[in-house]
Design brief:
2 helices; two-stranded antiparallel sheet; binds iron/sulfur cluster; Alpha-Beta Plaits; alpha+beta
Length: about 70
C-alpha cells in the first residue's frame, strides 16, 4: 500500500521524476498515487521525498489481517 499525505506534500515533483508510473500530479499540483504496486523505484521515490509525505507498506501475504 502506497500513500501520499497531501497535507505534507509540497509538490516538488521528486517522486514523479523518479517514478511516474506510480506517482503523478493531481489537479492541485500535488503528488498522487496512480498505481498501487510496491517496487524498488517506489521505495526510491519515498526516500527522495524531502518532507516524508510518502508511506509504503509492503504487503505480506503470510500475515493475516486482524
Ligand atoms: S517527493 Fe514528496 S513532496 Fe515532492 S511531490 Fe512527491 S510526495 Fe510531494
Amino acid at each position: 500500500m502506497i500513500n501520499v499525505d497531501e497535507n505534507k506534500c509540497i509538490g516538488c515533483g521528486a517522486c514523479i521524476a523518479i517514478d511516474n508510473e506510480h506517482f503523478d500530479f493531481n489537479d492541485q499540483g500535488l503528488s498522487t498515487v496512480v498505481k498501487q504496486e510496491v517496487t524498488d523505484s517506489v521505495k526510491e521515490a519515498k526516500d527522495a521525498c524531502p518532507v516524508n509525505a510518502i508511506t509504503v507498506e509492503e504487503q505480506n501475504s503470510n500475515e493475516e489481517q486482524a
